[in-house]
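Table 4 source record.
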Amino acid sequence: MSSTRRHVTILIIGSGIAGCTAALTLADAGRDVLLINAGPDLDDGNTPLAQGGIIYKAADTPRDAEARALEHDILVAGHRYNNNRAVRFLCRQGPDCVDNVLIERAGVDFDRNEDGTYNLTREGGHGAHRILHKADYSGRALMDGLAAQVKIHPRITCLHNHSAIDLLTTHHHAKNSQYRYSVTNRCLGAYVLNAETGEPETILADWTVLATGGVGQVFLHSTNAPGCVGAGISMAFRAGVELANLEFMQFHPTALYEERSYRRPLITEAMRGEGARLLDDRGDAFMLRHDKRGDLAPRDVVAQAMVEEMLRRGVPCLYLDVSGVKQDLPTRFPTVFNQCLEIGIDIRKEPIPVVPAAHYFCGGILTDTFGRTSMPGLYAIGECACTGLHGANRLASTSLLEAAVWGQSCGQHLARITASGREAIPRALAAAIPDWRHEGNEHHDDPALVAQDWANIRNTMWNYVGISRTASRLHRAFDDLRALSRHLHDFYKNTAISKPIVDLFHGCQAAYSITQSALRNPRSLGCHHRIN
C-alpha cells in the first residue's frame, strides 16, 4: 500500500477536546486510532482559547437536584428549543466525565480554595456557582492535559498538517456502479491533503469521526481559531448527511475591541459572573433596561442588547467595567489582563472596550447521544455536531462539557462495535474507491484573490446573517453566496489543490448552508434574531 493510501479502523478528524477524548477512550479500550488535524500540533482549534471553564456541579447540592437545576438553566438559555434527551444525558453524565476523563485521566489541576475544595464560579444564565476553571485559561489547561496523554499513547497515531478535503462514500466515490445501487450510502473515510507534501491522500476508514470544530471564521468578527471555517459542515452537506439548527450562531457579547486585531480575543463571561458590568460610552450601565437578569442574562440577550445600544448611541464599541470584581485581576484573569495590557489598557484602572463577535455554533451535523449521524460509518462530536443540547442558544460553559461527554460516549460506543476486530468495509469495496484525481495543475490560488473571496464571505455573513437578521438581508446573502459558490467552482476547477483552496471551499459552503437555514426559519428565537 502506498504512503498516499491507507486503511484504518477508526479515523478521527480534529484534535480538540472532543477528538482527543474520543481517541483516548478508544485507545484505552485497546483500539487503534488515527487522529489527524490541520495544524502543526494538536492545539490548533478552539479548545485552548476557552477561558471561562467547564460545568461540574454545585457544592453541597444533592446530585439529582443539581442535575435538575442545570437542566432548567440549559432549557431556559436555549429557549426550550433543546433536545430534552441530550440535556438530560449531559446533566447526568457530566460530573463523572469530568472526574474520570479530565481530572483523573488528563490530570487537569483546576483552581481550588484554601480549604482544598474546588473554586467554583458562575456565569450568565446559571443559577448557581458550578463551573470549574483554571484561572482564565481553562481551555489551555484542558488541552495540555489531554494532548500530553494522546501523544504518548501507543495506540494513537497522530498526523499533523493534514486537512480533510471530502468524505468518501459508496454512492459518490465507488468506481463499481453496483455499490451505488445499495440503499445505504456509507462513509468510507476521507480524502486528506498533506500540507507537507502538497499531495492529497486517501484514508479509508471503517469508522470516521468528525471533530472539526466551529464555523466562526466565516464571519468578519470572530473569537475562533483561524482553522474554524466549517470544514465538517461543508463535507457533511456535500455527502448528504442530515444537518440541523444551522441558523443558530451564538455571538459572544464581550470580545476585545481593537482595530489591529484579526481574531478578536475573548473577554471571558466569568468576569461578569464575578461582578463586572457593561457600560455605554457615557459610563452608564444599561443591561437592566433590556433584561431583569442584567449583566448575567444569557448571551443572545446580551449580544442583541449591545447591538441595540451601539446603534442607538452611534458608537463602535461598549465597555466592560471590572472594578466590581473583588479578586486580584492579574491572578484570577491573567489572560485577559495581559491581552489588554499589550494594547495599553490596564483593566485595574480603566474599562475594557468590547464588541460582540461570532463565537459558538449551536447547530451542525445531527447526532444522537453516541455521536452517530444519519450516515452509517460516520460520527460527529464537539462543535461541528448538533446534539440538540443548546437549542436556540448555548448556556455558558456547556461547550467543553458537551465535547468531553460526547467524545467519551462516542469512544465507548465505537469500542463496543469494533470488539470483534472485523473490518466494516469489504476489501472489494475498499478497492473500488479511487485515489484523488487532479482536474488541473494551474495555479490560480493567488493570495490576493483568495483574500478577496474570503472578504466577500465574511462581510456578507456579518452584515446580512449576523446578530440581527431581516428577510431582505438574508435574501441578499443567499444570492451573493450562491453566485460566489458558482464562481469558485468555475474559477478553481483546474487549479492545483492547496490548503487555502480547501479552506475557502469549506468556508463558502458552510456560509451558504447557514444562510439557507436562516432564510428558511422565519421565527425569531435565541441566536436567530429575526427583525422581520
